[in-house]
């Protein structure tokens, strides 16, 4: 059964949130309703993390399977004992170094937290965001707020209020419009319940910074085949996917441009609509194709590319393209999260072109 709601949009200042508007949204959380709000990574679809019925509404609104666990957001580290049964030393160090910020830690769950927050597992993912609206909302609600990304299941995450409304209008009580989410990719998820810390999802907190605090950190960087059990269900290959079929090209730059151009022409000849995601450097090479091109940013500017990536996929979907062709971008820093999201959106369709090796 789907959750029905009359959706109210509140325009809130991202740096200095208006207390009366935050109080109005917090009241909805207290009453068991759903509030979508901006964080520094992406928009979240929030509900009281300690209210099992409210949590069920999140799954219904997102059309998300109950097997995919939620992240609980806190405003202060002293809310952590409400959620986690045990906070290992590594988690304390990570919290001290990177909270508030785009870091989510998977810990053993405290007994009072409803188990539908974590799909029945005995763990919980916790994050302390830095976005002023997120912090003000959690504080005013006076309870941890569970919030997955505010998109319908498997669609690209929402980085603006317009994206949230596109997916969730009529399925969420309040949408706080606080402008674009500054980072544009989700938080880094780290599992701290095992012998060594493991990165389950690369994200806004980059590996180089993590390594500085925890040199023994490892990451799960493999793609699961469908149906295979996942430590983090976010590892399902199909995720963050536009409706169009995404195809990625990897190799030296001229070969990648050539392959994208050839493929575009082939699809066009078959009467299909084509969209291209390009770096600023490459965009000009495709203009004569007459297809929809979105320039994401300069190849080396991962910060710029991360900020617009999900919105670009949504924009091409809105134009009704059948295929999206893109270079497999990546690299260090935020490049890891960009690569991960591109690979998931393409469900593994990566074509290696040009010189081998
Ligand atoms: O930046 C973010 O993390 C955003 C904002 C709203 O905070 N939230 C977000 O939530 O991306 P979501 O639900 O779309 O992704 C949460 C990820 C998923 O990959 C989920 O499987 C994983 O965290 N996760 C949540 N609880 C977990 C748990 N107990 N054990 C392992 N993985 C967990
Ligand atoms: Mg998500």
Strand content: 15-25%
- Indicate the low-confidence ranges by residue numbers: 223-236
Distance between the termini: 51 Å
CA radius of gyration is: 20 Å
> What string, H for helix and E for strand, traces the elements in order?
EHEEHEHEHEEHEHEEEHEEHEHEHEHE
Total helices: the number is 11
Please tell me what the overall shape is: globular
Task: Tell me about the largest β-sheet.
Answer: 12 strands, mixed
Bound molecules: threonylcarbamoyladenylate, magnesium ion
Mean pLDDT: 92
Description of the molecule:
By secondary structure, this protein is an alpha/beta fold. It starts with 7 loop residues before the first strand and ends in a 5-residue tail after the last strand. The strands form 2 sheets. Strands 1, 2, 3, 4, 5, 6, 7, 8, 9, 10, 11 and 12 form a 12-stranded mixed beta sheet that branches. The protein has a 5-stranded parallel beta sheet with strand order 15-14-16-13-17, with helices on both faces. Mean pLDDT is 92; it is low at 223-236. Helix content is 31%, strand content 20%. The chain is built from 11 helices and 17 strands. The structure holds threonylcarbamoyladenylate and magnesium ion. Threonylcarbamoyladenylate (TXA) binds at residues 39, 41-42, 44, 68-71, 102, 104, 106, 118, 121, 123-125, 127, 147-149, 186-187, 189, 200-201, 232-234.
């Amino acid at each position: 059964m789907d959750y029905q709601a009359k959706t109210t949009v509140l325009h809130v200042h991202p740096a200095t949130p208006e207390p009366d508007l935050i109080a109005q949204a917090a009241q909805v959380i207290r009453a068991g309703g759903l509030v979508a709000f901006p964080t520094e990574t992406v928009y979240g679809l929030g509900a009281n993390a300690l209210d099992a019925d409210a949590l069920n509404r999140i799954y219904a609104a997102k059309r998300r399977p109950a097997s995919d666990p939620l992240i609980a957001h806190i405003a202060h580290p002293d809310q952590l004992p409400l959620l986690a049964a045990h906070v290992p030393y590594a988690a304390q160090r990570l919290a001290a170094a990177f909270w508030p910020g785009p870091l989510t830690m998977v810990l053993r769950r405290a007994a009072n937290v409803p188990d539908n927050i974590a799909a029945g597992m005995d763990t919980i993912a916790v994050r302390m965001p830095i976005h002023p609206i997120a912090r003000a909302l959690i504080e005013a609600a006076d309870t941890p707020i569970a919030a997955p990304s505010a998109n319908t299941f498997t669609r690209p995450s929402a980085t603006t209020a317009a994206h949230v409304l596109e997916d969730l209008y009529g399925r969420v009580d309040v949408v706080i419009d606080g402008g674009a989410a500054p980072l544009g990719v989700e938080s880094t998820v780290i599992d701290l319940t095992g012998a060594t810390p493991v990165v389950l999802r690369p994200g806004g907190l980059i590996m180089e910074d993590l390594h500085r605090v925890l040199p023994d950190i490892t990451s799960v960087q493999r793609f699961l085949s469908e149906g295979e059990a996942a430590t983090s269900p976010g590892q399902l290959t199909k995720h963050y996917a536009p409706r169009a079929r995404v195809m990625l090209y990897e190799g030296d730059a001229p070969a990648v441009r050539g392959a994208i151009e050839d493929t575009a022409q082939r699809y066009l000849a078959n009467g299909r609509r084509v969209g291209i995601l390009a770096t600023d450097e490459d965009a000009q090479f495709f203009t004569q194709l007459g297809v929809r091109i979105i320039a994401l940013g300069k190849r080396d500017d991962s910060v710029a590319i991360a900020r617009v990536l999900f919105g670009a996929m949504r924009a091409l979907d809105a134009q009704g393209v059948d295929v999206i062709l893109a270079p497999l971008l990546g690299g260090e820093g935020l490049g890891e999260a960009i690569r991960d999201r591109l690979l998931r959106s393409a469900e593994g369709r990566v074509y290696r072109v040009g010189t081998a090796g």
